[in-house]
Amino acid sequence: MLILYGVLFILVENWNKRRKPKVETLSDLSYCTAFCIGLFQVLALIPGTSRSGATILGGILLGASRTVSAEFTFFLAIPVMFGASLLKMLKFGFTYSGMEIAILLTGMIVAFAVSILAIKFLMGYIKKHDFKAFGYYRIILGALVLLYFLVFANV
User: Fold this and answer.
1) How many CB atoms within 10 Å of residue 130?
2) Residue 52: which of 75, 36, 22 has the closest Cα?
């Protein structure tokens, strides 16, 4: 899937060069299109599929600009991450010591700050570049993973 989605990123970016996006701002995104982009998240259930990659590709295929697709993908991550965190907390129960709460809060604050910086960097990159580099990265990583399993599967 790493290789397949890498190829898809390159193909979609080549196709995207020849078209004008129908949706150029988040406010232009219709509820129907937003829902359909959200459905692309289901593809992330397939091992090796990036949730954000699937939704970005879905957004572009549905007529959104690269920037809108990426921004919307980050917004889609909020309920997913919140839900995953809540499930983990339910799994471990709510009997945290003061030290565990302090560690949890520190982790949340650091993760939030780092994610803001990463999103800011990525959005700046997306405005100037396409996703082909990400496609090539996925192809190379997929080839390395296959090579690893071919070499070390019999060990």
Assistant:
1) 18
2) 75
